[in-house]
Amino acid sequence: MNLYTRKYLRIAGIIVFFSACFWFLYQVRSILVPFLLGFILAYILVPLVECLEKFRFSRGLAVILIYGLLLGLTVIVVFFVLPTLFKDFNEIIKIIPEYTQTIQNMFEYLQEEYSQFPIPISVRRATDETLIRFEEATISYIKNIGDILIGLFSQSFNLVLTPILGFYFLKEYNLFGDKILEFLPARYRADLISVGGEINQVIRRFIRGNLLVAAIVGIMTTLGMYLIGMKFPFLLGIMVGITNVIPYFGAIISAIFAFLLALLQSKWLALYVLALMTLIQQIESSIISPKILGDSVGLHPIIIIFVLLVGGKIWGVMGLLIAVPVAAILKILVKHIYYRLI
Fold first, then answer.
1. pTM score of the predicted model
2. Alpha-carbon distance 166 to 175, whole Å?
């Protein structure tokens, strides 16, 4: 067997191996969620562990201290936060059918009101169809919110398993990187270290920055909703904080839901909610995000909107969450490949 034959067989073997790996991971994708979440948790906590190591703490002790702090925060959440959250959650699930009926009555009233005006038949028919579609979309949106909330709480097993897996990932974080480098050909290691370092910097800045911005926006929303007398301020604050991670569209998603809930309480309250959400998003986009995030991923807003639409089309909500970091990674890879080729 000559040199070229062995080379092509090796390339074919690598392709088959990675194809088999991807096929296997796709088949077991449902059980990979806690592993992925555990790795993300470890990835976020690594800077804290490395900071403690600079003060001559061993890695194991640093991890234990960080987890002790997380345990304390968890206890606070369980005893002081979860009761309120469960209360709001149960109430909103119970009143969804009532809200649905109220929305239907509201659209029927609108149809009766505008039917009194002399409108051409073709225009009236088109308006009726538009109102019906909008009514169906609104009701479906509210029902889907309930399904999403139920789905989040049904993932309790993953939430319990995530910190356990995160502990082991965090403890052996550097070992995983060394093993991956040993697996790769020596002539590519320097390039891969350079690319990996750049990706790591961008993604870590993106994750930490967005989590901080989401927390600030969530707290502002909770306080604002409470002050204007809106129901479920805590649940709405959490929802706004979570959806704020999605650039551009996240604010629209949460604002629509909050506006619809407020509209069913009072028209004036709906206006207050709309004004509050607008004010918070203006503060977030003009003051908070530029200070904390800056240009964290180096992507043009048009590109971000495009990848969000693509991600949402392919993977739904999860696609919206990962679209921007994946696009940032691809940008770095394409840049390095381009420079290698020329």
1. 0.68
2. 14
